[in-house]
Amino acid sequence: MDEVEVVVAHSERATLRVGDVFLKVDADQARIDAEVEAMTLVPVPTPEVLWRKPPVLAIAAVPGTVLGRLGEPSTASPAVWAAVGAAIRKLHDTPLPPRLGRAGRGRDELTAELDVECELLVTNGVLPADLVTRNREVAEAALRPWTPAFTHGDLQIVHVFVDGDEVSGIIDWSEAGPGDPLYDLATLTLGHEEHLDDVVEGYGTDVDLDVIRAWWSLRSLLAIRWLTEHGFDPTAPGCEVDVLKSRM
């Protein structure tokens, strides 16, 4: 009998694996609705939905291996990273879904949230003030108007699977919806700056690299407290705190 593996679990949702089946437990049915709808609309490989019985969504494992992991070197070739960039471009070129999800946080909302998190990081002694101040300055470049595109919304490197030189699956579409396309590119390459040029080459259009770097700082500053409170370690080598330190 297959064992039950806890893939991730926190107060918002949990994902379990039993053999080749993943069970996603989420009390927010709107989020599950968005995930299922997104997977039916996007022109990239996604997991097969096996069944759904709220609050559980059962999906099949995708073939291949993860592109890499935050804090660890990726063994994927430049060609593979370029293929991922091309797949992301297909996603961003897809017409915006009429009902899917909500628009991502706007500039004013992001600015207010960022200011709160930065103050807490310093006040609570989580990070040195100069480190927070420098990255808050870098993050400013991301706080500009953008044209919304169909985005994944949480395109972490572990959510992308590859087989050979091809993208074999992209998982976890619960945050999909209108957003800044450069946020997807930044999330994918967070902690893997050395592969950014390959991704951009595959993406096939001019992108503002300063904005991507700004999103690295912004995402890391916003994530550190949440990660810590939910049992993750943003201070692990190559993770969010190291990303912030690299901006100094």
From TrEMBL:
Q: Which parts of the sequence belong to the Aminoglycoside phosphotransferase domain?
A: 22-205
What is the superkingdom listed in this entry's lineage? Answer: Bacteria
Classification via Pfam families:
APH
Tell me the keywords, alphabetical order: Transferase
What sections of the sequence does the record tag as coiled-coil?
A: none
Indicate whether Transferase appears among the record's keywords: yes
Return the PANTHER family for the record.
AMINOGLYCOSIDE PHOSPHOTRANSFERASE DOMAIN-CONTAINING PROTEIN-RELATED, AMINOGLYCOSIDE PHOSPHOTRANSFERASE-RELATED-RELATED
Query: What's the protein called, per UniProt?
Result: Aminoglycoside phosphotransferase family protein
> Organism, per UniProt?
Streptomyces chartreusis
